[in-house]
Amino acid sequence: MSDIFLLAPEGVFFLILLALFAQSALQSALAGCPWGRYVPQVTFWLPPATVFVLVVAAVGLAFSGNLFSGTYSIDAVSQFFKLAVALGFTFVVVNASRQPTLSKDRRSDYFLFMAFSAWGLMLLASANELVTMYLALELSSYSLYILIPIRERSKEAAEAGAKYILFGAAATAISLYGLSLIIAAQHTTFISQMAHLDWSFTGNPQAAAGLSLFLSGMFYKLALFPFHFWCPDVYQGSSNETAAFVATLPKLGAVVILIRLAAFLKPGLEITTILAVLSAISMTFGNLCALAQKDVKRLLGFSSVAHAGYILVGLVAGTPQGLAAAAFYSLAYVIMNLLCFWVVSRVAADGRNLQLKDLNGLYKRAPALAFSLAVGAFALVGLPPTIGFMGKLFLVSAAWNNGYNWLVIIFVLNSALAIYYYLSLVRHAYTEEEAPENAPDTSFFASAGAVVLAALALILGIVPALAFNFAVDAGAALF
To answer: For residues 392 and 363, which has the higher predicted lDDT (pLDDT)?
Structure first.
């Protein structure tokens, strides 16, 4: 009976999946039938259901154990990320409930695939073995292949979907080939056993090469250089609400795998040095490209490339504090980006792509949205008292004096470089007076969602101890 409670978050989520599948099937079967009007709208019952999952995931923080002979681990790391996935999914669903580029007859299917992807990420959080990780990651990815092109009257969405599939197939093939090399060299796929093996290029080159290739699949999800090419194009081509999902939750899946694997990657190891170099290149390349962007979603896309590099700073530290800092910053990243994409979705009430000039005069037209956008931009820069500042502070503190001080210096310089394009969002919202003709959504729904996310970004920046201390305990347990 106790095993059932261990699986409560993903179990409740699976029940929601079944309900969405039943709703989709019923709507198709009862199309044109008088009984069809008695089927409740998915946007009516799904948001409260996601809040219930969030509560169950919060309660799940108190449980721990191992299932399926150690393949599936219920520990502090898995429960932390399940809670983060549940939190992100709740806001993504609420945001997408008023999607203007989605017809009513497609809503059940749309949310079904979105839920499948998030459920795969929950399974991924507990995966403690490489094959299980690979299967959970693919379960999450295949749903996105269908989700991204769903945008009415948009050739760009179809192009974005094709690019995501092609790049995803290549990354998957590389990752699977790397897995075969690991199995051939180390004769195990269990992380608990892999931690005691040799991963140096000099001692076991086949295993080291295999792990490097396997990590490529995670780098693709994280949009880390040089696996980032899909990111700005997919953000720009997909609908604003879909981009909000793609930009946030899949990153959590990549981070939790990297955290589990980074626990046995010591500083100075060749693979760890490769991660540090990719981190430096990714944050620099992402920030430089973001400087030239006028499309807001493309700007946030290149911002994601930079933030992928930031997260790796904690992973290369090789300490429980470093892993905790990476976990905390991934949560911060989700909240900051959901806040920015919420504002983008509400300002573009007709579903169009926003240009920077479309934010002109937002403080007059929608004061709550303008304030929330400012909080999101300040958080992404890393200014106090936001969650972004505390996340970057934890990363710098964990990585300093652990062999990669040069990476910390590059990290700080890139954070300063990013100030220009993040604060340009605020500049357009507060200092430019020539406002566009399109009116933003100024309803209570729009303002309330933005204020709640802004409050989260501020509260967790002012009082980060509870979340970070839990992450530290989780990181220590991995060691």
So the answer is: 392
